[in-house]
Amino acid sequence: MKKISFKAVFIPVISLFIICAVMTAALAITNGVTATKIAENEAQSQQESMTIVCPDAVEFEEITADVLYAGKDGSGNIVGYAISTVANGYGGQVKVMTGIKDGEIINIDVYYNDDETPGLGKNTSNEDFTSRFKGLFTNYSIVVDKDYAGNGQKVDAVTSSTISSRAVIAAVNEACEIYNAEIGGEQ
Predict the structure, then answer these.
(1) Is residue 96 packed enough to be buried (19+ CB in 10 Å), middle (13-18) or exposed (0-12)?
(2) Residues 150, 134: Cα–Cα separation, whole Å
(3) 60-69, long-range: CB within 8 Å, 24+ apart, which pairs?
């Protein structure tokens, strides 16, 4: 039987340890450098989304951290509310900004659905779909057309993307619940 030397075992183990330590440090540094930029990009995307759903607003005042914002005109009057919500879609998270004024949806913007299927679930961010929510009311639930049973408000799903469409609808319904609970009759 051949005897294994300490050197034959020790050198590869130390080599692997050093490689793993260097790679871990490199990943940690990369994460530290990019985390700030990712957060800045997400904040910018959210700000642009608020402008889309409350087009008459020139500034936004945060009411609830990272969720509910009051859109104000140049005179400081509230012209609507922007509400950010998240739901799980077919491939991952779907982030939706919902604009509401006087209990009615102004507009919605799907500002993150990168994990959804291209050409299908990603189509939930197209204006053809998002415009279907304009004018719906916050005090009635919204359902996808396939789930409609005669009550609530019906929105036609994106073709072949019922799960992604349901995710957007769930996020909008959550925004309506937040609006009703936080703002309700304070108009």
Answers:
(1) buried
(2) 20
(3) 63/182, 64/178, 64/182, 67/178, 68/178, 68/179, 68/182, 68/183
Angle at 173 between CA 136 and CA 112, to 5 degrees: 100
The pTM is what?
0.81
Lookup: tokens for 38: 């990712």
Give the number of C-alpha atoms closer than 13 A to the C-alpha of residue 143, restricted to the C-beta side: 11
Token readout for 139 is: 């005090």
Token digits of residue 93: 């998270």
pLDDT at position 186 is: 53
Q: Could you tell me if 112 and 95 are in contact, meaning their C-beta atoms sit under 8 angstroms apart?
A: yes
Q: How many helices (H) and strands (E) does the chain have?
A: 3, 7
User: 163, 84, 170, 82: which is closest to 116 by C-alpha?
Assistant: 163
CA dist 20 and 49 (Å) reads 41
Distance CA 141, CA 153 (A): 6
- The span from the CA of 20 to the CA of 75, in Å, is 58
Q: What are phi and psi of 62, to 5 degrees?
A: -75, 125
Task: Extract the tokens encoding 145.
Answer: 């057309």
Q: pLDDT digit string (tens) for 32-54?
A: 888 888 888 888 889 999 999 99
The tokens of 85 are what? Answer: 């919500």
The DSSP bridge partners found for residue 112 are 95
